[in-house]
Write a structure and sequence with these properties.
heterodimer; A: about 100 residues; about 75% helix; B: mainly alpha; 2 domains; globular
């Protein structure tokens, strides 16, 4: 068999099992107060770690373009909110840094 | 009537996935192009995206194949890199209001950093229809982008492609800012988690992808004790 197929199958299993397991473990079970809190905090802490430090290399070798994009997104969030506008604002800000 | 509501929840989910569609396209195009230059076939490239469906580890696999790494090494690295989804799935599993339990294995398959983030901060109930709409939008753009990148071989103008790399970060910022704005405690946890991840990343001995796991566990654990019951309800 082609080795690439074997790699794909192995990677698929290695990725799917951690995604699936919590759904079976938490089935019909109410988590305790503290576990519930822990689970509810994950989105905030995950997002913090997804943003930093990755944003500094969002544009390869140009940390300032990443910072400018992030700052633009943050500013638009404060003024207008929403998701789409901050994204396009960030792309525009990064583009300007790269292009000029 | 019930079917109709389901359809509208599905539609709401796919609309909520629109920012992900924008963010995935340039990365998926890049994956398709890199696949072609790595010498794998179009079918194999699309199989990576459709069966594995995990961005960072797909790029990593191509790099490792090019370096001549063994199959087991690639699979183990994938497991380490993608294990963070265990925590994300756990968070979603606790909130999901499933109309149909049989859908859960499919919803689990579609959990990525981005679908998890959008679902977590959505004002909608996380029904299985909503989750399916959201995940399908993300899935289709990832796969269409992969195939298009492979077939077209070239990408958007270089500075355009490079600037679009910021899109998913901007989405993460846009998702977390409204809550962080309301609560200094939440804002502190977000920043602290970013700092922990950055610090752990400096240790070469920690496998890639584990900085985020350590940050999530450490900072969420700390966070359990800083909110009173009233504040915790708002989370």
């Amino acid at each position: 068999m082609n080795r690439i197929y074997l790699i794909i199958a192995g990677m698929a299993a290695a990725t799917y099992v951690p995604r699936l397991l919590p759904f079976t473990l938490l089935k019909n079970r109410r988590p305790s107060k503290y576990l519930d809190r822990f689970l509810k905090l994950i989105p905030y802490t995950a997002l913090g770690a997804l943003i930093f430090p990755g944003i500094f290399s969002a544009v390869p070798d140009m940390p300032i373009a990443g910072i400018a994009g992030g700052a633009a997104a943050l500013a638009i969030c404060f003024v207008r909110g929403g998701t789409i506008l901050p994204i396009f604002g960030a792309i525009a800000a990064s583009y300007m840094i790269i292009a000029f | 009537m019930k079917e109709l509501r389901k359809a509208s929840r599905f539609k709401k989910g796919s609309q909520a996935g629109f920012p992900i569609v924008i963010g995935y396209l340039p990365i998926a195009l890049a994956f398709g192009i890199l696949s072609k230059t790595s010498g794998i076939t179009l079918l194999e490239s699309v199989m990576f995206s459709s069966i594995v469906f995990a961005g960072a580890s797909q790029f990593m696999a191509l790099t490792m194949i090019a370096m001549g790494a063994g199959t087991l090494g690639i699979v183990l690295t994938t497991f380490l890199v993608n294990f963070r989804h265990f925590l994300m799935s756990a968070s979603i599993a606790g909130k999901i209001k499933s109309e149909k339990r049989s859908m859960l294995p499919i919803i689990a398959f579609g959990i990525t950093d981005e679908t998890f983030s959008v679902a977590s901060f959505s004002k909608e109930n996380l029904t299985s229809s909503f989750m399916m709409g959201l995940e399908l939008a993300a899935y289709l753009s990832w796969n269409a982008g992969t195939a298009a990148g492979y077939l077209l071989g070239s990408t958007l103008p270089e500075s355009m492609q490079a600037s679009m790399g910021i899109a998913l970060y901007a989405m993460f910022i846009a998702l977390v800012t409204p809550m962080a704005k309301k609560s200094l405690k939440i804002a502190s946890l977000v920043i602290l988690s970013g700092i922990v991840n950055s610090l752990v990343g400096r240790f070469e001995s920690v496998p890639r992808g584990w900085g985020i796991i350590i940050a999530i566990i450490l900072v969420s654990f700390l966070g359990m004790f800083i909110f009173n019951d009233e504040e915790a309800k708002e989370l």
